[in-house]
Amino acid sequence: MHQIIFNEISAREISAIPTLQQLELVNSFRVEDDMLHEGSDSNAPFGIVERQGRKIYRFRSGDYRIYFTMENGAVIVQRVLHTNSLKDFLFRSGMGNGTEDQRLGASRSFWRLIDEGEQAPRK
After folding, report:
1. How many CB atoms within 10 Å of residue 58?
2. Helices 83-93, 108-119: inter-axial angle, 10-degree rounding
3. C-alpha 110: how far from its chain's center?
4. Are 77 and 66 in contact (CB under 8 A)?
5. What is the CATH T-level fold of the domain 4-119, as seen in this structure?
6. From the CB of residue 94, how many other CB atoms can be counted at a distance below 10 Å?
7. Would you kindly state where each structural domain of the chain is located, as residue ranges?
8. Helix ranges, 46-107 (H)
9. Would you say 107 and 113 are in contact if contact means Cβ atoms under 8 Å apart?
10. Whether 65 contacts 83, CB under 8 Å
11. d(Cα 87, Cα 91) in Å, to the nearest integer?
């Protein structure tokens, strides 16, 4: 099991989720090294979003997605997003083909969201 660190943005995003859903989401978020290599099937709990050699992991639980990176054995949560916000984001971006992870990987706007999370102070 890895230490989980939220930045200010992801902490604010998870705090906006109703308390019971927060607890369920955090309870289900367990990261084991072998889980991170399962691929990017949009139905799998873990996926990988890649672009130009950059990689971010996706954890899917119910209506929420946690996007995180690994750093020195710790899980750094960059963003916590609701699936409806992602569907809206993809629709507005005009991205229709491929899995959710593939479409996000191709989106400059998605990577700006991730960059914002990576630059935010950690809690």
Report:
1. 22
2. 130
3. 10
4. yes
5. YaeB-like fold (3.30.2310)
6. 7
7. 4-119
8. 83-93, 100-105
9. no
10. yes
11. 6
The answer to whether 77 and 6 have CB atoms below 8 angstroms apart is yes
Residue 7 to residue 110: CA distance in whole angstroms: 17
Q: Is 73 left (phi over 0), alpha (psi -120 to 50) or beta?
A: left
Half-sphere exposure of 69 (CA within 13 A, CB side): 15
Under 8 Å CB-to-CB from 87, ≥6 apart: which residues? none
Residues 59 and 29 sit within 8 Å (Cβ to Cβ) = yes
Residues 48, 52, 58, CA angle at the centre, nearest 5°? 15
68 in Cβ contact with 75 (< 8 Å): yes
Residue written as token pair 């699936």:
83
* Residue-level pLDDT, tens digit, the chain, 123 residues: 688 999 999 999 999 999 999 999 999 998 877 766 655 555 567 888 888 888 899 998 888 999 999 988 899 999 998 887 766 566 556 656 667 778 788 878 888 888 888 888 886
Separation in Å, CA 32 to CA 1, 4, 13, 46, 89: 6, 12, 23, 10, 29
